[in-house]
Design a protein that fits this description.
The protein is α+β, with helices and mostly antiparallel strands. It contains 17 helices and seven strands. Helix 13 runs antiparallel to helix 14.
Amino acid sequence: MHNAVTWCAPASAASPGSHGDQGRPDLAAHPAWTALKDAVEAFQLLQAEDGSVPEPADHARARILVDEVCAGVTALAPVFGHDAAYLEAVVTDLRRWADEGLGVPDFLDSLVAFAPQAQRVDGLAHLVLFPMYTQNGSRDRHLEAVMVEVVWPDFVAELEAGDYSNRMFVPIRFIDFTSGYDTNAAVLFPETIAMRTIPTFTWGAIFADREAARFRAVVQAAAQTTGLALPPDAARLVADQRLAEETFVMWDLIHDRTHMRGDLPFDPFMIKQRMPYFLYALEELRCDLTAFRESVALEARGVPHARLVQYAVIFDRIFRFAITGSRVRNYDGLGGQLLFAWLHQHHVLHWTNNRLSIDWEQVPDVVLALGHEIEDLYWRSIDRPKIAHWLAAYELVSATVTPHPASTWAKGPDALPLQGQLKEMTDAVLPDEFPLSMFYEALSRRIGDVVASTSGITGGSAR
């Protein structure tokens, strides 16, 4: 019945990327944006990794480019009247930076003035300009410019206003961007911005269109390669960019708020500290499995996208996450491997006669059981020393995903430097502690080019 309802539901009237912008000019083609973008790209060529312009011979040219960027911001400001205070502050920060010699940039004042979380209106556009690095993109803290629009469907607004409050969460869609975002970067986080001191962060933005577009491309290729028959509602999810974007917004809403909720280890996982990467794998997977669990409950309450979130968590994790990126401390990849192996070893995912099949009716209970294992690990952590918690976490992962035969950790506590510094324990983890299985090695060879092709993809390019 659910599949029939999903298939019969009318498709979105607007194409992906167009809803909420009726009557709005094509911002990506605006002459002021084109000039601003060109000036930013030229300015980047003069910057060092820390964002400064180190060569005095480049300063005259850099100041001209700053003037051009400021002119572009000023010309575009009337289109973004809701961000007037921020755009004024960013021009001030740009001019001060140029006047003070183009050293390491400091855009704290404009960052504090930017408050997209206060205006979560579907289709509302923002012009964002900061010196920053882009996660999963460039680590250089260069000047970047990006135009975005908010993705805030009514059903997500209702969820957020109810049991799933997350005041900092801002889902967005690309309109256009400079080169730092022509990458795998799918987030816009304030902590990536150059600033003199760190304020209390009040927002975090995730590009739902990029997440949805690369999900669709990879899952379609993986299903064709493995012979997996997608359930009808999952097939529609893969076929419909707008539907996929909304599904990812719901997933991200619940995932994001989970990082600081639950029976957590005393040290929050998301602060900057060096730990064995499998701990980060468990944290990210815990948040995804929480989104899965909540979606099972929301499906029972009749929330239409809830079933689709379950498909998205499974397929994105076991297909795209597992084979994306390098094998060096790839914690998202490990999370995908763990979920796949757990489903296989609990006999709801089958690789038989070179075809993949999934017993969907049994999947929820099996997935929820894995979530319970991780939650129990966390609950027990408060009574354990950190090193004992690390060992227990390794035991959980290695019970399902096979470690490298050369692993020191796999030999057990007696082989580890338990009396040394925790850094020694972390250093003992191999860069690829849990290599890809034969299944994933073969899958990567077959669809690796599709995964690579999704770098820089947007909702518009995926339609």
